[in-house]
Every structure is written in C-alpha cells, then in structure tokens.
Amino acid sequence: MERSPSESASNNNRPQLDLFELLDIDDRPTLVFDLTNPHGIPTYHNASLEKIPLLGLKLGTGVLSNSASSKDQEYAAFIEWAAESEGQLAQWSYCGLLWSSHVLRDHWKIVTGSEGHEHDYISARRRQSEAPKLGRARTSAIKRPSHSPSQSQIKSMSDGSLEAQIAALRLRDRRPLATPATDTSVISESIQNLKVMKRLDFLGVFPAIALTPHHKFFMEFDWASTGLGPIDSWSINLRRAVYFLFSDPRPAALYWGGQRTMMYNESYMHLAGQKHPGIMGKTFSEAWGDVASDLDPAFKKAYSTGEATVHDDALFYIERNGYLEESYFSLAIIPFLGDKITTGEQSFEKSEIAFYNPAFDTTRQVIAERRMTFLLLSSNLMSSSRNQREFWHQLIVALQPDHPDLKFAVIYSVNLDASESGSEASDLSHNRHWTLQGKIRFENPTPGIPIAATEQSMERFLPKFSDLVRSDSPTLLRTEDGSLPESIARDKSAKNGELVQTAVFLPIRSTADTLLGFLIIGLNNRKNYDRDYQVFIELLTRQLATSLASAVLFEEELRQAARDHKLLTKKLAIQTHEALENETRFRRMADLAPVGIYHIEPSGLMLYCNENYYELTDHPRDKFAPMSWLNVLFEDDLPHMAQEWAKLLSGEPVNFEIRLRRPFIAEDIIDGEQVEGYTWILAAAYPERSSDGIVLGILGCITDISRQKWMEGFQKRKMLEAVELKRQQENFIDMTSHEMRNPLSAIVQCADWIGGSLDKFECDKNNVVIPRDVIEGYVEATDTIVLCAQHQKRIIDDVLTLSKLDSDLLAIAPIDVQLAPTIRKSLKMFDVELQNNDISLRFEVDHTYSNLAVDWVKLDPSRLLQILINLVTNAIKFTTTESTKNIVIKLAASLDPPDNSTIEYLPRINSARDSTNGSAWGTGEYIYFNIEVQDSGRGLDEVERTLLFKRFSQTSPRTHVQYGGSGLGLFICRQLTELQGGQIGVSSSAGLGSTFAFYVRARRCESPQGATPTLPIDSLLIPRDVHPKLVAKSRTRPPQEMKLSVPRHVLIVEDNIVNQSVLSRQLKSAGCIVSVANHGREALSYLEKSRFWKGLETAGNDLSVILMDLEMPIMDGLTCVKVIRQLQDEGKIVGHVPVIAVTANARSEQISNAKESGMDSVVTKPFRIPDLLPEIDKQIGISSMRGLERSALSPA
C-alpha cells in the first residue's frame, strides 16, 4: 500500500526508536515469542517480568531442570497458551496476573501481564514479591554466556527493522534468555486440567460459572476481617478446598487455619438453621459455642492422629423452623494438609491441618425408628391381653418408660350401666361413667384429674369433651387456646418445669365402633406436630383399637367357651353313658363271636382279644408282650406277616391268609385221606387313625379256613391226578396201539406174500412144485409171524399184569425152588434169538451164592423170571445192532440188602406192599438174591435214565431196530421187586452199555422129599423148529391193476428192519423198484442223487414216491418231510416229491399233524399191499399232473 507524501514527510521527521528500549522501561511484565519457532521458547522478556518471583525464576534469572519444569503443569500450560499462534483464549490467568497478547506481522507475539482495573501494577508486584518463594530449592545454577558479542555483530544488525532489533537485543551484554525444555504431552495435560479448574473457579475476576445467592454471599463476605485474609490472597490449596466444598452436594463445612475459620456450602444452611449467616467466617468455638466442647475432642484426635472421626446420629438442639428443634446428625471430621507456614528463627516450614466436616441430617430416620420401636414394644405387650383389664394394664406398662414423643399420658376407660351392653353402647350414650386407669409421669395425687367421672364432670375437666369422644381421629389440644388444661400440661420430667404446649386426645374404639376409652398424650415441645408425628399418633390409635378389640373379642370368646363347655359337659356325660352301654353290648357280642377278634397297639401290644382268638391260636392267656402274637404264626409265614404289618402301620387296610403253628387235625376221612394239615386263618384288619393320619391302633378279626384250604388242596390233587391219569392213559393207548400195530402189519404182509406167491405155481390136483428158495422164504415168513405174535402176547401180558397191580389182585405165591438151576433153564428160551442175532449170553453165579450154601428157598419163581425175562429181552433188543454183542447175567446172594455203591436203586414206591412177611413164606432165614443183567448195548444218557421205571414210559417214543415194548415192562418190574421185598436199579452211560440189577427177599427152606423143580414159564417157551403149513392155492387171481406199464420207483424210509424187509419184498413182488433208507437223513441223501434234485433231472436216480415212517432215529419222518418241502421252496428240489406216511400212530390228531408237516397222505399200520398200491398210484398221478401244469406255465 502506498503512503501519501504528507505521511512520508511525517515519518521522516519521527525519531528512530528501539522497540525493546520501550519494553525495557515498561512496568508491565512482557514476553515476546517467535511464532515460527515450533518449540515455544520466549525470544525476549523485559526487566519487569524478572521481578515476578515465579516467572523470574524460570525466565531470565534461572532455568528449571527439564524434569522439574515438566512437573510444573501451570507454567507449562501458560507457555503453551502464550506460544499459540491462533485459536487461543483471549486472556489467561497465571501468577496472580491477567495476561493478554498481541501479534505483530504474523510473526511476533507480545504477551503482557496486568492486574486489571482495581489495582495498579505496582501493588501487584509488591504482593507478588511478598509471596512465599516456592520452588527455589529445585532451581539449578544460572547459566552465564561464554563470550560477549562483538561490535561488528551489533553494527551489522543495526537495521531499523523489528527483526534487526530483536537480533541486536540477543547480542546485548546482558544475561541470556533461558527457558526450560517442555514436554508437549505434559503441557497438553496441564492445559486440560487448568481448563477444568477454570470451570470450577468462581473466585476469579471472571468466574466461569453462574453464581448462586450463596456464591455471591460467600464472595461478598468480608474475608479480610478473618484470619484467612481477602480472597485474592488465598493460596491455591485453599482455593481448591473451597472449590471442593461448593461442589459437594452434601451439607459440609470447612475449617481452615490454626483458628479453624469456618466456611460452608449451600446445603449446610439448612443444618445451621438460624445460625446462618452468623457462623460464616467464624472460628469453630465462636460458631458452635454451645456444642464446641462436645466436638473439640474429635478435632484434637483428628489433628494428633491424622485419622478421620465419625459421629452417627449425634443429638443437637438447633434453633431452626422458629423453635429449638431436636435434631440428629451423622457427621465426620476429616483432617487434611493446608498451607505451609514458616515457624521459628530458622524459618522451619510445616503444613497446617485443615478439617473437612460433611454432615447428614438423620433426624427423621432416628425419630421414625424410635417411634416404630415403641409401637412394636407396645404391640407385643398389648397383644397378649385376654380381657380389658389386662389391656389397660399392658398399655400402662408400655407407656411407663420415658419417651421424648410421649411426655405424659392419661388413660380412661368407660363403664356402662348394667342395662346397657357393649354392643348396644354408642357415642351418644349419656349413661357412661369414666374410670381413670392410669396416669404416667405425674405427681401422685394430681388434683384436677378425676379418678371417676360422669359425662358432665368430664366436660368440666376437658372442654368440649363430647366433641372429642365423637371424633373419628385424634384431636390436637393446645395450652394457648385452653383446650389443654395447665393442670396436666406441666412437664414434670423437665428440670425447668416448662409447660407441654400440645397434646393429643385419642378415642379408643373397638372394631364395632364402640367407644371403650380414651388416651391423652403430651407431645414433644422440641418437635412440631408435623405429618410424621401425625402418622405416628394414627398408628398408635389403630394399634390401641385393634388390641382392645382383640381383648374384648377374646373375653367374649372365653365367656362363650365357658357356656359351650357347660353345655358340652352335659352332652358328654349323656354320650359317655350311652357309649359305655354300647361298649358293653359290643364287647359281649365280640366275646361271643364265632371269629377271633383282636385290638393291637402300633407297638404290637395286644389290648384285647376274644375267647375264640385264644382257642384258634393257642396264644397264652396270661403272657402278653409287644409282638408276642407272632409266636403263634408258622415260621415260614413270618416274612409275609411282616409285609402286612408294615402296610397296617402305614395306614392301609389288609386282608390275607396265613398259617399258624398249631396243626389242623379233623376226625374226618375223605376218600381214604385223613383231613389234616396246617391251620389256615383268614385275617382282616384295618388301622385306626387320628385326624392327622397317625395310626392309633389295629382292629381286626381272624377266621378258621383250615378245612377249606385242605379241601382246595384235595381237589387240586385229585384234579392233577385225573389230568395225569388221562394223559397216561392216552400215552398208554398210543403206545399200545403203536406196538400192537407194528407186529400186526408184519403178520398181515407175510400172510399176503405167502398167499400171493402160491398163485404163481402150476399144480395138479394132488401135487404142487415149489422151488427151494420159495420154501425158505415161506419158513422165514413163518418165523416172522411167530415172532410178531410173541411180541403181541408180551404186550398183552404187561397190560394184564398192570391191571392186576392197579387192582391189587396180583398175588405172590412162594414155593420151594432152587433158584440157580431155574434161571439157567429159563434162559434157554432165548437160544434161537441169540443165535440169529449172533449175541453171546453168559450166566455167572457169584461165590457169595456158594459161600452161603444156598440150596432150596421159598419165593415166587414165576414173578422173578418175569422180571428177568423182561430185562434180558431189553438187553437183546439194544444189543442186536451193536458191533460187540455180549450179555452177562450174574446171580449173587447176601444176608443183607445190597448197597448202592455201583447200582443206583430206586426208592420204594410203597413199602407197605412187601408180601414176604406172610406165613406162606415160612420161618427160615431171610436171604437176598441179587441179579444183574449187563449188556454191551448203546447205553442210556441222563434224560433216558430219568424216564425208566415210570408208568407208560420208554427211553424213546419210537421202537428201535427190534420191537420195543409197551412202556410198562420196567414199571411192572419195579412193582414186582417191591412186592417181593426188593428194589431195582440201573447203572448206565451213553455208549458204554447198561447194567440193570434187582434183588428180592426169600427164606431158606428144607428140600422137599421126592419133589423136582418145575419150570413155571412153559407158556413163554416157543419151539424153534416150527414150520407153518402151506396154505391152499387161492382161487382168485391178483387184480390186473397192480401191474403197470411204467414201473414204480419207491423209496422205503423205515428204521425197523423187519418192517423194512417185509414191505420191500411185497412191493418188489408187486412189480415196484424199491430202495430203502434207515432214517430221514439217509432219505435226504438219496434225494440228492435223484431226478428231483436240481441239475440231475435227466441223470439222477428214478424216484416215484417215498413211503416214510414217523418214529425213527437220527431224523424222524416229520422233520424229514419239513426239510424236503423247504428244499422245494428254495428250488433245490425240482417238482413235488410225493411222500406217504406209513405209521402206527392212528389217532386223528397224529394224522392231522403229519399232513400239516408236509405229508401228501397217511397210511396207518397194519395195512395190506393191495390197499397201499392204489394210494401210491394216486400220489404218483397227482405229482405227474403237477409236473405237466408246471411245464405248461414255463416259458417256451
């Protein structure tokens, strides 16, 4: 910008002044900062600034160490503000001065400090110089320049520019400017702290907060007249304490300095009451002269120990709210360090102790707790009252202790006329009389308080008495309006005898709103009758009404209870008399009852039992103890009784049967059985229980059911016997039918063969030419017929013998006999059978026989030989198919029965049936004959041994390779041995053969003169050389339909060799091609090679039909046919294999079972070949039709 010529001329005439010469003579402290310097280091300061102790210490005259200056947050914040180029605050307060700044040429910043408008700068410097020089101990030595600038340097910078002047200023011969290095993080933190502190600062020239009236009062207070001095002279510690005081929302006071000068916040004004504002700035003793002595020990303790003290609920009487009020405060006295002071000649520094005093007004809480305690105590006392008299007494007791809120009490109760009851009385009644029940905290006597009064006299005692008693709520009485008489208003408990200013009248009513009394209570002069006081009085009124109503009600209940008791006593007497009569009647009935009746305690003690109970249980009549009745029970039933007893004790009724120790014996005999056994009783009991479910006793009865239980057992036994007998009969019929049909079938077939073969021979009228081989066949067929006849006869004999045994008709007829020769002769009957089967039989007589010199004895040889023949027959049957075929028969004798060392003898079925004790047996010495039959057969396993000697039992339900028996043989043997005083047994293991042994008892006898022993078994001997007669030639020719163009391929599956041979020969004679299998497994093996097996349809063996027996070893017929049908379903067998069952099981159930298992048809034995062949052709035809249908349905 260009200047005008006049301006240029004027400037040329101005003297050239040095800026710093002007600043050097300025009285204001000044700093100059180079804004281009990022370190914020002052470039210049004048001499006036050096006179400020704190700044002079840091600038110009000395330098703080880096660590010390970094800790001076106020200085760091001030330097940061002064060096800021823009955005800074307009003014800054530091070291008691208000600093402002100006910027020249956007390069230089000049900062000047001043005290403001109220004081000049000289006074400010004086106060600053008089201030304590804090922090000197931390300053380091002043740094001096090492050389002075030369004149040439000064001359070269004598330019008139501001930069030249500042550069020249730096080269002057003066002490160099030195400032501490500052930590920028510390400076930033300091600025933030000072900004926060400035917001709390209300003591400065420009307060940052809005001042409340209390703030203004505090600022305008003449602090210069106190020991603290004016506010602007206060130390930073005091200022901080004041800031904290005014920031505390709680009532709090601050005591500063040695005189404990007091200052407090706005919340404390309510606590100070009427002492505010007079106590502001006063010492503690001046402010609280009346209570200073009480708190002075607390201040001394805090001063000496440095520990805070707390006073909870301290009582103070404070003039506030217009009267001397009872107040309670919880306050604390907290010591802390104040300003440092110098004492003594050596300038010793120490810190003063200041006190912070927060206080809490707990008046309302303390008084409320006190009143609630009184209400609880009075409630506990009055709630125990049972009538009105006790209620008034308990009320007096409750009011007796001193209570600040109840200065005195006067209690009256109402008395009604006799004609007016409590329920009829009302507040409008004029017949009431009042009686003084008590007065508390009064001198006795007290004139003016009537002891008894009427309504009219009470009006003279209490003005407007009628209005008071009709009021529904307590009424306040005052001395000032005359409603409270002075005669009762004087507080006798106060030392100065001051009058009680107020009282309350409390009418006491019952819940029926009936007035029963009233109470006058003097109130506390130190508390206003405010809302809390009113609530307390209302609660007391309700408590009195409730407690009195409860007492009245209880009293009425007692009277009613007395009336009820009288009435109930009368009724009880009547009912007791009736109960005694009923008890006598029922006891008489119980004593005569036909069942046992009892009553037992839960402990088990018998309380009562009738006569029938004693007779039934045999319980001792004079011995009763807890659970003694258990001794009459059967021991095995005690656990059952324990279970039932537990149910009774748990409250559950029971009904059960149990046995007694006493046996049951009757005189009756039913079906040959004596009626006797256990004594059974039927017990029924139920628990008597109280209303809360506790069992009080057990009542019950017992009934003798012994005869019924015996009859139940008898019927059950008879039923089981009948069922078993029926089962045995069915089994017997099945087995007998089976065993009879088997030999009968062989007989019929042999006869058919003989008759059919004779038709083939040409003959004239007299002669028939028969080839030798045919003759031999006839002989063999004849032998077969004889053998089958013998077998049938043996079965018939067993059945007849069994019938005689069952009917007890079988008699033992002893004769004189020589036993060993008799046995040897009888064994000759087996010679032919033994030779045919290549079996070796050896008879041995043991040495014991000869040692005892046994000769003639008395016994029944026919029955003994019947046993022996049965055992030998069984031995031959089971030895025929074995590789080793040996049978050994041993005879031994002894004077005592043999032991069971090797043979396990069966126990005797009925020892009473021994007939050897009869007179027919003579008087000779007893001798026992033991006979063993040992074979090398297949032996018996454990299961088979258990079936032996049982009625209708066989070791296997099938016949073996030779004909079996009826299942009666061994059973009959057992019966016969027992009839002869002996036993029978066996010793056998599977695969090791068997040894059957029996013994009988006989007597020695003399040899009969001229007598020869006879063999009583002639009927059992069959001559070996028997040739049956040739039968005449049949006149009829065999039917032509028996011969087919296509031969029948028949597979016979039969385990019986005789039947297999006969049937095979007959079918061959009929033109059939026959194959045989001994059991089902062999039949399956044959099927695997036949045309029915898949893959062998053209190359396998031909097979048309299978004839299959049912009872076979290895695999029976039913199992085999099931496997065949399963293989057909699986496709392993192609087509349907015709299977005809050939069996002696002829019952309909057995035939149905066979067909259900897979048989196509069933042919029962005995049968004839002419009858069998049509069935074979029928099944072959059906199978062929099935094959054609299957071929038609299969794809081409």
Describe this structure in words.
GO terms for molecular function: phosphorelay sensor kinase activity. It holds the Pfam family HisKA. This is Related to sensory transduction histidine kinase. Residues 582-652 form the PAS domain. This protein is of the alpha+beta class. It has 6 domains: 16-193, no CATH class; 205-361, PAS domain (Beta-Lactamase, 2-Layer Sandwich), CATH 3.30.450.20; 366-560, GAF domain (Beta-Lactamase), CATH 3.30.450.40; 593-704, Beta-Lactamase (2-Layer Sandwich); 802-1020, 2-Layer Sandwich (Heat Shock Protein 90), CATH 3.30.565; 1040-1193, Rossmann fold (3-Layer(aba) Sandwich), CATH 3.40.50.2300. The protein contains 36 helices and 34 strands. Strands 22, 23, 24, 25, 26, 27, 28 and 29 form an 8-stranded mixed beta sheet that branches. A 6-stranded antiparallel beta sheet has the order 13-12-11-16-15-14. Strand 15 and strand 16 (515-522) form a beta hairpin.
The radius of gyration is 72 Å
Looking at CATH, which topology of the largest domain would you report? Heat Shock Protein 90
* Mean pLDDT reading: 78
**Beta-strand percentage range:** 15-25%
CATH hierarchy class name of the largest domain: Alpha Beta
Give the proportion of residues in helices.
Answer: 25-40%
Number of helices, where a helix is a run of at least 4 consecutive DSSP H or I residues: 36
Cα-to-Cα separation, first versus last residue:
131 Å
CATH architecture of the largest domain: 2-Layer Sandwich
For this structure, what is the CATH homologous superfamily of the largest domain? Histidine kinase-like ATPase, C-terminal domain
Shape type = elongated
Number of domains: 6
The secondary-structure class comes to alpha+beta
Number of strands: 34
* Major β-sheet annotation: 8 strands, mixed
Low-confidence residue ranges: 1-14, 60-71, 117-184, 417-426, 955-966, 1013-1044
Organism: Rhynchosporium secalis
Region (Disordered): 126-158
Domain Response regulatory: 1049-1180
Modified residues (4-aspartylphosphate): 1109
